[in-house]
Every structure is written in C-alpha cells, then in structure tokens.
Amino acid sequence: MATVILRNLVKTYPASEKNPAFTAVKGINLEIKDGEFMVLVGPSGCGKSTTLRMIAGLEEISAGTISIDERVVNDVLPKDRDIAMVFQNYALYPHMSVYENMAFGLKLRKVPKAEIDARVREAAAMLGLESLLDRKPKALSGGQRQRVAVGRAIVRKPKVFLFDEPLSNLDAKMRVSMRAEIARLHAHIGATMIYVTHDQVEAMTMGDRICVMKDGEIQQVAEPLALYNRPANLYTAGFIGSPPMNLFRGKLLQEGSIARFIEENAKGAPVAIDLPPDLARAGRNHAGKAVVLGIRPEDLHEETAPRFGATATVKVEISEPMGSETYLYLDSGSTSFIARVKPTAIHAHGTTVHLALAPERLHLFDSESGAALT
What we know:
The chain has helices at 48-56, 98-108, 113-127, 142-154, 172-189, 200-206, 224-229, 234-239, 277-282, and strands spanning 4-13, 22-32, 37-41, 63-68, 71-72, 83-86, 160-164, 192-197, 209-214, 217-222, 246-255, 258-263, 272-274, 290-295, 300-303, 311-321, 326-331, 336-341, 352-357, 363-366.
C-alpha cells in the first residue's frame, strides 16, 4: 500500500501539422491516501485517463511531480513503479489459460513456482475463478474475463492498483455485479486503488472519495455524500446525481428580512421561493443579482394547492413510472426539470401540478462564476 501525491501535474501534447498544442491536464494537485479507493470521474476528454496513464508511467509528464510511497517516480519506468493496471479491454493472452494469464507476470519476475501457484489460487478463490483456471479467454463471459484481468493484477501484490474504465464493456447487470466485487476486493485487501470512470453512479457507489474533473482541471474532491449534498460549483451539482440536480436561473430579491428567489424569463408563473435564513445570509451580497437555484429531484414534493413562497405551479411533460417511484418531467415555462415523487403520482401530459421545494435542501450558486454560495 502507498500514498500517491500529484503536484502541479501537467500534460501538454505538442502541436502537429494538423493540430495546435493541447493541454489535457492543467496543473492538478491531488493526494490519494494509503489504502484509499479514489475515483476520478468526468466526461470524455476531461483528463482523467491521461492522469491515470501518467501515474502508471504510460504517458510522459510535461510538468509537475508524481510521488508513490514518498518516492518521486517521474523518471521511473512503469515496471519499476510497483503498480498494476486493469484496462478497459481486458488485454488477456488468448492462447493462455486463465491460470497462465494470471501467473504470467510473476513468471517474468522469476517468482518461485510454489509462490506463483499459491498467489494465483488465492486470487482465484477471492474472485470465484477456481473452476475456470483451465479455460481459455474465448470460453469466458465478459464478466469472467474482467475478473481474470483483476486477478492478474492482484497476484502481483502491488502498492497501487489502477483501473481504467474496467466495466464499460459489460452489460448493465454485469456492471452492477462487478462494482460490488471490486468494492469487496478493496475491503478485503485494503490496497490503494485509483479508478477512472465517466459513470457517476459507479463513482458514488465505489469511491471512498471522488475527484470530479472537467477540461483538465479538478472541480471538487470529496466523499460521495459530501459531493452530493454540498457541491462546490454548478458543474459538480449538475454532474453528480441521477437524475441530476435541477437548476433554475433567476434573481435574488431582498424584501425586508425575507430573501426571495424569482425565476427569470418564465412564460407562466415563475418559480418563486423564500430562502431559509442560512441560505439568505449566504446570498446577502447577491441581492438584485443573477443567481442559480439548485434542488435535487427527490426534494420536490406534490402539494394539493399552491402556497405562497413555498410552491411552484408547473406543467407535466412526461410521467415515467419506475415501480418504486415516479419521475415527473416538468416545465416551468422557462426551465425543464425533474421531480422524483411517490409511485402513484402519475399525471397526463399537460396536467398542472403544485410542487413544494424543501427549503432546507436548496442550493444557491453565483451565476457568473458557478461557485456555491455557502
């Protein structure tokens, strides 16, 4: 196990005949604790896989430093960094059995045969592969192949495990199963793991902490629930959560001791809500200015009648029954948003409903910078 520290890490790809120079990672700083499961999450092109490949030594570092177990590894070869990487495409040798694939790296390092056998069988037992050790990869399902790739990393007993979107080739049901297996594996061996994904559900369910990235920069690093409940900016608020946070653009008006958010450009009745005292204090310097109000779909509740300062009257676009709950796709006249309500709350297209916005669950953001007002 080891601590991994990134300091002012930069990756710039030089200009070519067809493309200008491009900076994929822009001076990020991140500390991954010993034994931590850190997830790097963000959309395609945000720099997360490039960061992982620099940690692995597969990409040259343009500037900054990477330290593993208090040793700067910028100029250390990948094979000497004591890391193991699990790739998206499994990268198994098709002519070798499961046993041989898992043992191959140890044979190259001239580990004694008895120790190789013990490590392979221990990893196979951990991953439920004991009955598959004699099979070739072509005789395995996608989930089984991915478990072999993970097992091949486990037998090396590295200081750091790196996962580069390992579940993206699996179907939805298998992804859920493998998420649980990798989480159990981390709990069992307690190793430092860095996991890259574009799927924020994977990030929320697996990580001890999550690092949200966008355009080569870190937006926020926090534990999953802290990230969900206290997003640092508009980007994190809109990215984390399924369905994502609803965001309403408007102005903050001060009327005596009451701070009220009023949605702008609404064709009908605008979303208007009185802010609770703590949020009113947070926005006291933004009175009369453009702000963004955020609220999660599960924090919207149906009311039988409108209540001034507490509800929004909106039209239903679609009702999507999920069994345990219903998603209402709504339109305020200027904003489309989603409410997660009780399973029996199914409405026809065009129906008018009254929604209460839980005041203690509101979020307020600066419209220009996107920063949370707290």
